[in-house]
Structure prediction request, 386 residues.
Amino acid sequence: MPPDDLKHPMNRPIYRPSRSHRQGRVAGAILQATLLVFLAIHAVNCGKVGPPLPPEVLIPKPVTDLASRQIGNDIKLSWSLPTLNLNGTKATTLQRMDVYRQIVPVAATAPGAEEISKQFRGSRIMSIDTLHLDAFRESGLVVFVDKFPGLNPETLRTSELRYAVRVMNKKRQDAGFSNIIARPWLAVPPGIPHIDFKAEETVIILSWEAPLQTGPSASAVVGYNIYRGQQSQGVPVAPLNEKPIPETRYEDRQFQFGTTYYYTVRSVVQAGGVTAEGANSPESAFKPVDVFPPKTPTGLIVVFADGKMNLLWDPNLEPDFAGYRVYRSEDGISFARLNDSLLKSPTFRDEKIQTGKKYFYRVSAVDASGNESPPSPIVSQSAEGG
Prediction:
């Protein structure tokens, strides 16, 4: 053991690190400082580092425009396909739409919309997968027709029908039911058996007989809706008439000759403020043919000047007007046409005349279908010399 005086701190040997060791310590300090600077910059740019966020849940918004129509004995539902999720992003995860129906006894006092929503306990009657959505598309809407398979019509007559739609994403998540539709089922008359047609120059006239009532439970007919399409087997969504017409007759003034139209008529019934349409009449095709000539030209005058006969008359204003034909006679009985092509304007100059002769003229109008009007009154004029 060394002497006690050698244990005094002042007498301990001094430790002197080697050059390589000193260099290692300097490098470590520089590395530590660099790391602290990097963490400081990262903290400023990125903020506080927290736990990873859960994936965003994309649930389509619920349907809000569910609507219904009764056509014959069926209920036709329609609604718009949701385009946004609950968070406002584009709805790209939609997988399925389920249709629900609830049948309840008709209440003495009709509940309000809020109460109906609370009471709704519908059963699923249809699932529409987006892969087969095209089969349920109509005029930009999704449609489903409830035909009540297996249900007794007597049950429907004494019940209220309630419908809702639920839209699900690929994880079978949804935002709840759509707006609830509540309506009665009305007994409607049978379809109108036959439609008669008559074409006039500016109108197609449709007529039919009122359908027979099927019994005391059938609702009263309040009017008719007329549907017109240009393709067979495709009744349009909206009728031609803005509101049901009370007569068994309709005048269609928006048409073109030579076009085939397909007409369907439905009777309209009403009860308790709710309307329903009867079954479709048999589809009736009608092609109006233009056999109606233009009006006879009027106001024909003939003036001889500068060795020529100058004709002028009033213009025709028919929308299908095509042109005029000018006829001349030297005896007032046998007329010959002077122009090979139709005249577009109501003027003509006859240069092939002989001085001293008397000439007789008349004019007719022709439409786009080739129909020619009766000739105008005859006007005569002498080619006087001078």
About this structure: Confidence is low (pLDDT under 50) at residues 1-17, 37-41. The chain has three helices and 23 strands. The first helix runs from residue 19 to 46. The helical segments are 19-46, 113-119, 153-157.
